[in-house]
Amino acid sequence: MKKFQFAWLDVAIGAAVSVAVLLLFMFNGADGLENKLYDMRAKMRSRGKAGDKVVLVAIDDKSQAEIGRWPWPRNYMAEMVDQLTESGAEVIGLDMVFDKPELNPGLDKMRELAKSYEEQAAGKATAPAMQVSDVLKKTAAELDNDDKLANSLAFSQKAVLAMYFIPGQGIGKSGKAVPAEVEKNFVANVKADPEVTPVQDFVAPFDKFAAAGVKAIGTINTAPSIDGVERSVPLVVNYEGRLFPSFPLQVLRAYYKLESNDFRYSDGQLVLGNAKIPVDPNGRMLVDFINRETFPRRYFSDVRNKKVPAEAFTGKIVLIGMDSTGALDQHITPSGNNIPGMEIHGNVIQAILNNSFIVRTTWAPRAELALCILFALFVSLAIPHISAGKSAIVSAVLLASTVGGGFYLFAASGYWLKIVYPSLMLIAGYTVVVSKRYLYQEKRTEKLEGESVETNKMLGLSFQGQGMLDMAFEKFRRVPIDAGMKDTLYNLALDFERKRQLNKAVAVYDHIMSADKNFKDIATRAEKLRIAGETMIFGGGLGKKSASADSTVMVGGGVGDLAKPQLGRYEVLKELGKGAMGIVYLGKDPKINREVAIKTLRFEDEFDASDQKEMKERFFREAESAGRLVHPNIVTIYDAGEDGDISYIAMELLSGTDLKDFSTKDKLLPSNEVCEIIAKVADALDYAHSEGVVHRDIKPANIMRLTDGRIKVADFGIARITSQSKTATGTVMGTPSYMAPEQLAGHKVDGRADLFSLGVTLYELLTGEKPFTGESIATLMFRIANEPHTAIMTHRADLPAGVQAIIDKALQKKPDERYARGADLARDLRAMAQRSMAAGAGAGA
Length: 845
Known about the structure:
nine-stranded mixed beta sheet; single chain; alpha+beta
């Protein structure tokens, strides 16, 4: 019974969505979106090339730059008509309305003077006045550009002129008489259908041109859609119950040598001779636009200057029109913006010549309605009874078929079916019904989860074991707080403390206190955590103050009895010291009970947000490379990881001091011991270099002398990161004394740069002085890169004789002239030490 009721609810929801979409369909509520899809399909279909029967002559910016700004004297148009007539053009269409005489004040004055002299000659019968009158009349005739254009049109007998009808439905007849030369262009013996686009007035060609024996006159009216895009063109307009044909139709009538009574018109079709043209009830034709770049186009100035061969126009339909910046005759079409009117008319003519039409058939609305109803039934009756996966697949197939079929029929055959409404029916219906189903199922799932206490508890424990503490707390919240649950929550709060997420630990304690305020020490612990969260600075963004390079994972100030913090799996015992980018802690690996040194780095404080990801990746790559190094004179790296916003390296715990303590003159070690220390470091570097790892920051501070006498090289893996840190600027600027010239120059370095740094370290440990000094960083860098180092014997004359040669080779400016390997430097140092000891023994004997 419940299943039956559930299905009926889905049917009702699907029906409601279906009715809403059907109302949109009936009232064209989504035609804006449909028009966008129409334009996409029209562009797909417009890839073809234009034919060779229509040629456009454009009055463009280039022509106006050469001839002068429009309007031009009409004798220029007369010359063009004559030129095209001589070239053998079949039809010459003037795609602009010449409705008034040309503005020519000089001509008017000349005619006025001629008339005056003619009157003088008539009154006084003087021959000179008559002669002057005749001269003035001849001059006026030469200046009359309208006569010249009329004569050219009459001579050509191939011209088609344009006129314009003012849209709108007038009340009754306008009473404006139609000129006789225009009258004969109406479609003969055909009464206008009332649905054909009505017009109420007209702008006709100047009577001198209309009576010049032109082939035909047609209207250049357009019919943009509500969004301003011209997808269709009215082929006929309705003026006082009669049909007047469009300019493209009249051009075709002239081309086919037909008369006005050769037109036939009925609903859905306009016949011109043998051409059957599909139109809508308003007399409009959907234009099958051709891609603009393929339409033949000539420029008026080039044709006038005989730069275009006459054969280009022989037997062709030639349209002359505006195509300049700022011209009013610019239109938006599916194929592009700023399309001139003559190009639209050319597309209409080309489509009719090629019998290539976009058709909105009479059965299209019925097919669309049938699809909408089919999809409504699918949404209401099918989706509720099949699985979500199957319904998604079927819906996707139906949608793809509808959209793909609509695009294919349009692009391949020119049939326009509206695909928005069936698609909207499917998408909206599917979304609403499936969303309702999932909301219902989600409520049932929540109810079941609430009833299954044991399931939530087991899930919470699983999440806690994986370190997903937030998700564990979410599951534990759904479990009643009994005695066992209190202990479980208490342990979760301790885990939050160890992760330094003190506010979340407080939230867990508060949750326990909602059931038992006196459980263990939760009240005391919660209060201490609140104080710590308000007054202390912690890593991981836990305190109210922002974390910084000084932030610590340790908690002090009277709250030291809280759970010991952790970094990854390591338990943090205490701070050992502070470095350039973070703090070094004493830690313990609980799995094997081994103490380690944990060096932390906080990228959020050291690098810009854009660099953090890259630097973290580089940090772990460097740590991985350093972690592969196993050598008695290299500090061993055990692990690297992240905990919150802290990245860390767990490494061998050392007891001793670095060689910086032995780099001053009053604390120098014996020279033979220094040579052996540097030899061991050279051996370590030789091994690291063979593994592809370069240290980049060899200096006394990074060489450890342990309490048992062993030597360890530290900070492999983070030296390169530290050198690019913004807070490490002081550190970097403090250690250029040890850098090789190529390293200071920012060039790519290899192991020989480390050996240069080791040479500087050797020099300093033997003398208490650096080989290069300067009053400023710039001076120091210049001397390292360009000047020789101070001879070591000038500082300490008792050094072994061979040390100068070793120092000189290690500190060569060019890497190729230094020691190629650390092993070579170690060999020379040990050999020198043996010679020195032997010499000392001989002297003692």
